[in-house]
Amino acid sequence: MNKPSSLIRHLLRYAWFLVFILAFSIMISVLTFENYYRSRVSNVFCSSTFKAVTWSLNNWTDVLNALYKLDFYSLKQALDKLYLFFEREPNRTDEEINEELSRVFQENVQSANWYLINPLGIIERTDYATDMGLDLSKKPDYWKRLVSLKASEKHFDPITYEVRTGKPRFYSYVKLANGYLFELGFSIPTEQFNRLLELLQNLKRQFVLIKDISIYNESLAPILPNFKITEEDKKYLSKIDGQSFATRSNGRWEHIIYGRWIPSGFPMGFDIKIHLDLSVLSGFKRQSLWILNTTIFVIAAVSLLIIYLGTKKINYLIDEVVDHITGSSHSSKKTGVREIDLLIDKYDELVKELNEELRLKDEFNRILSQSIEERDELQRKLEKLALIDELTGVYNRRAVIGFLSDYLKNTVSKLSLCYFDVDHLKMVNDNLGHLCGDYLLKHVTNVVKEHLRRTDLVARFGGDEFLIIFPHTSQEQAQFVMDRIIQNLQRSKPECLKNLEVSISYGLIEINPGEKANIDQIIKLVDEKMYRHKKEKQG
């Protein structure tokens, strides 16, 4: 057996590997510095710039207060009154509309203009001749938001501009029952709006790194025609929540800040886009990176020298240890170094202990394997219990939300949902006791389960409320099942309920495949139908 090479020879043989480590360290330092620059320099600078801009814009609050001659709450009330006005008689004349506006707005009526927009997006009637015949559907993003409104639902654009004149205006909308949109427009005084434009110019002069500032309303419509917006801008602005902000790199030194500005006391906010040019920081970045890499190189060179000198010293000591371990004799040869001599003395003891440790290891592995199997079995039982309602034995809210989510993602056929609650549960708890109330819930769930198919699913949604999922079932078929359940609620009642008529109130909906259904919206819809059913029964 050839004698192994010394540590010094190994160090020289693998010198190329040490060079690779040095190069890798420099690369890591560059990436770390880049990350530090983005998180500490670029992001912090973008954050301070965004805060400074919004702080300056907050000083413009007095202009916003001058935009409206009635507060936001009053405007919502006015739109509600106008909705009822058209609901009573959809085909109102221009004179009737003007008279109603006079009653609703009183002294503020001079500042308001009205528009009637048909379902195709065309302004059919208005007292503002400039916009007669304007087709809003030619602004698809804006029209998409308006056409999605439901009857009586309102939308507000705090600042936008007229398509044909470019003048700033404030618009509000309410969706009428016949599918038309009724719009109110308020002119913004030009001299007050110019103060905002002067403020933006002053900000660009004060912050030399700011190339441009653009402001958009909540519909992502520019408040001025010269404020452009791209699909990439819309993508980032749609992610903004509250008064947070996000940044996007637009090149090596250019950054774009997207943020939400909500003036104090104002019900709606504005989206802001700030274009920054940070090229003036490039010199600082290059100098800092050069100093960092030079420091790493010097540290690496000094470390190699220390390793070389130290290796020569310990090479002899390591050879003595190796000779003892590989030799046939267990006699210890003293090296004069306490730690090395102690290592040699302990070696023989460790060898003797090794076999015992291996035996204990085998025993431990056997016990551990058995414990893991028992733990897995217990985990499966706990997971099952976490999905079951303890009182009724049906699924709980957590389980049914998961099942419903899977159905909505994967189903290729129609689906029906029934949301019901048990009538008079509070009265039973108060007068007959909570134990009898529990019997009532168990009785109802037992009757429901008797009449469901194996593919159907019932879950306790909370308190006295339950949800049934009917896969591959139309609303008519589900209604048939619910009729049978209601007919059998009086059978086999517990003794404490013999003088009580057991009943439920329910709502039933059908979901077709391919519908983009949101779980919260679905639950809200079926809950509303259940509530109407309960009201009808009480009435």
Strands, total number: 13
What is the H-and-E element order? Answer: HHHHHEEHEEEHEHEEEHHHEHHEEHEH
Which sheet architecture does the biggest sheet show? 5 strands, antiparallel
CATH fold call of the largest domain: Alpha-Beta Plaits
CATH class (first level) name of the largest domain: Alpha Beta
CATH architecture of the largest domain: 2-Layer Sandwich
Low-confidence stretches: none
Strand content: 15-25%
C-alpha termini separation? 102 Å
CATH superfamily of the largest domain: Reverse transcriptase/Diguanylate cyclase domain
Tally of structural domains: 5
Please, could you describe this protein's structure?
- This protein has helices spanning 7-13, 15-58, 61-67, 72-88, 94-105, 140-147, 190-206, 231-237, 282-326, 338-385, 397-410, 425-432, 434-450, 475-487, 519-538, and strands at residues 112-117, 123-126, 154-161, 168-175, 181-187, 210-216, 245-249, 254-261, 270-277, 415-422, 457-462, 465-471, 504-511.
- The chain is of the alpha+beta class.
- It folds into 5 domains: 1-52 and 296-323, no CATH class; 53-64 and 191-276, 2-Layer Sandwich (Beta-Lactamase), CATH 3.30.450; 68-188, Beta-Lactamase; 328-380; 397-538, 2-Layer Sandwich (Alpha-Beta Plaits), CATH 3.30.70.270.
- The strands form 3 sheets. It has a 5-stranded antiparallel beta sheet with strand order 2-1-5-4-3, covered by helices on one side. Strands 6-9-8-7 form a 4-stranded antiparallel beta sheet, sandwiched between helices.
- 19% of the residues are buried.
